[in-house]
Structure formats: structure tokens, C-alpha cells
Amino acid sequence: MDRTGHGPDGEDVHVGVDTARAARWAGRASLAANIGIVVTGGAVRLTGSGLGCPTWPRCTDEGFTPHGSLSYHSAIEFGNRMLTFVLVAVAVVTVVAAWRTGRRDLRVLSVVLALGIPLQAVIGGITVLTDLNPWIVSLHLLLSLAMIGLSVRFLQVLDRPVPAERGPTVVLAWATFAAAWIVLYLGTVVTGSGPHAGDAQAPRNGLDPLQLSQLHADAVFLLVGLSVAMLVMRPARAAWALVGVEIGQGAVGFVQYFTGLPEVLVGLHVLGAALTSAAVTWLLLSVRHPPSAG
């Protein structure tokens, strides 16, 4: 039994049910793995283990693995580096599954996701070699958030390969997407000015955390307003999901700010950033590519 859809150029594409199912599972694995690496990367920073392996690509000058007595920080940092191999395995499976569908759009997305892994490794190496420069650390996180969005796009394109719509609702969806990324970026800048640097000797960006937090909060208010408007215009599951994530993020952000940024809450906020990227991408794509009438 085959499933018929439309490719990016309007051509009919016949994809076997088993092939589509394999691609869907690969896309879900890619999404989960990229969210996981964001959470574990946050754990490295919040435990002060960012320089547990003080060099790159080796862990120490002696080798690729920690030598001597394995410290708490080196174990955490080295363990996070090893998760790269999980990402590589998932990326290979995703590329193979995409290739089997015969669809060019899925193949391109899978290759872009795969290329993001060595790019992340290089940025991670620069992060270590610059002693956790906060601007490089933020770039490291933002790339992971972008890869989460691409994983959602892979799943959405697989399930809904139809031409894009236009109109005011799509414009609002794009505005919501842009506001979400402004919020995510400002969140990384706020983090770069705060206490959780990843290492006691790591530099901070030198900006005022109070002023940055206010700017971040203003952007959040804009995002919530756009999301509520989106919910009114298109009350679909994606819009509800985004608003739900924002409520959770707002609650965690509010509490962590007034309780001195405890590590557990900051870690939950990092997870919320990953979920925000996924949810806002889902919203945008569900509006641009709504379910076909057939």
C-alpha cells in the first residue's frame, strides 16, 4: 500500500507505508536527540563542568578521554561529548530513511540536519578553546535550537507535502516565529550575563543582567500577545501547544528570577527554550501548510 502526496515542485510522490513510517520514526528520533543535547548541554553549564575537558578535540593533553582520577566535572563534560555519537547515529538513520522515500525535500532536510552535527562540534571546540566565551556558548545553543526546528520541519513536510498558503494568518504566524527567535536569542544574552557560566573562571559578557532581563521580558510579552492572536485566528493544536509552552516558560522564568536562579529551574527553562523552538516551528508550518482537503 502506497501513500501519495505532492512534492515541492507539485509532482506526485508515491511513498510506501513502511518507508513513510521509518522516515517518521527517524524524524522523531532526530527531534528527541536534539532536544536531549540541549538539556545535557545545559546540565554541563549548570554543574560548572564546561571545562571538565579543558581542550578540544582531545579531552586532555594526554588523550581523547579523561586521564587519571575521573572528576565529577570531567565525567559530565566527557559524557556530553559522547552524546555526539548518538546524534551521528540518528542523523545517519534519518538520511537513509529520507533517501528511501525518493523525495528531494526530505533528502535535503536530512542532509542539512546531518551537517549541523560537525558544525556543532566545531563551535563546541571553539567554546572550550575560548574558555567558554558567552557569545560562542550562545551560538552553540542557538544552532541546537535551529536543528530542533529543522527536525519539526522534516516531520511536517513528511506528513503534509502541500503548497504553502498565503494571507494575513500566515503573516501573523511569521511574526510570531520571528518574535520567538528574538526571545530565544535574548535569553542566551541574559544567560551570558548571569552567574551560570559553566566554570568559575569563565568570562561573562559584561552586560547588565537586570536591564537585559527586562528587555527579555518585554520580548516575551510581545510573543505571548502574538501567540494569543494566533490562537484566536487559528485555534489549532499547534497554537495551543505554543501558548502552553509559553505559560510554562513564563512561570519558570518568573520563579527562577525571584529565587536567585536555582540550577534546577534554570535547567527547566533551557528545556522550555527547546520546546519553544519546536512549538513555534510547528505553528508556522501548520499555518503555511494546512491539511489538504483530500
Write a structural description:
With 294 residues, the chain is mostly helical. It has one domain (2-288). It has helices spanning 17-46, 72-101, 104-129, 134-159, 168-193, 209-233, 237-258, 263-288, and strands at 2-6, 12-16. It has a two-stranded antiparallel ribbon with strand order 1-2. It is flat and about 55 Å long. The model is unreliable at 1-6 and 8-12 (pLDDT under 50).
Query: Into which percent range does the helicity of residues fall?
Result: over 70%
Strand order of the largest sheet: 1-2
Shape: flat
Q: Using DSSP, what is the number of strands?
A: 2
Determine Rg (CA atoms, Å): 20 Å
- For this structure, the quaternary state is single chain
Number of DSSP helical runs? 8
Amount of beta strand: under 5%
Encode the helix/strand succession as letters.
Answer: EEHHHHHHHH
Total of domains: 1
- The assigned structural class equals mainly alpha
Largest sheet: 2 strands, antiparallel
Look at the structure and give the mean pLDDT. Answer: 85
N-C termini distance: 17 Å
Poorly predicted runs: 1-6, 8-12
